Amino acid sequence: MAGGFIPGLALLGLFFFEDKENRFLLGLWTGYCLFGLYFNFHISTHDYYSLPLIPILALSLAPLADLLLSKLAQLTDTKFLRLSSYIFLFVGIISSLWNTRNTLNAVDYRPESAMWAEIGAKTDGYNLAGLTQDYGARMAYWGWRNITAWPTSGDLIYSDTRGTGRDFEGFFNDTVLKKDLFLVTDFDDLDRQPFLKEKLETHPVFAEGDGYVIYNLMK
Questions:
Q1: For the chain, what are the domain ranges?
Q2: Among candidates 152, 118, 116, 114, which has minimal Cα distance to 135?
């Protein structure tokens, strides 16, 4: 509910701008709408694609905030209003920091970092492809190894939706078979890709551990 209320207020705020500022804000809103139409899949599945909306909302809400504060200034003492504003800002900052802290502390990543470091040590000196979380970002961060990421099932669905489906056989032969090893840590996604699973099962296991399997593409 709040997600629609705030953009609604922001759009209402456009009517309180002068013509020049209004054209600027309308340009920002139009740009964001075009951005959303072009990245329609990403903006609906990745929250960070909506980050450009935050400054647009803030600028659009500015005249409403100015109107509200000016009305409050007429009804209350200026010092009290200033103090209340500082308190409101302070509480908002603390609440945001507390929510961020709780999010970071919700998951203990130390066991996972040990797993990626172990994989990095076992695959040192080999060229890697893989189906992993975050397109290999965790491997790069904790394992200090870059991999060629195999597309996720979501990527494949997106390609099919756009009518640009992949030639799996050709992609596997041209990309994966040029590597030495194939790392799998996202087993749920592997189950959603029977073609890849069947291909990998034709190769011996190079190494495995808690949370990962590495296939030997050289044999």
A1: 2-75, 110-216
A2: 152
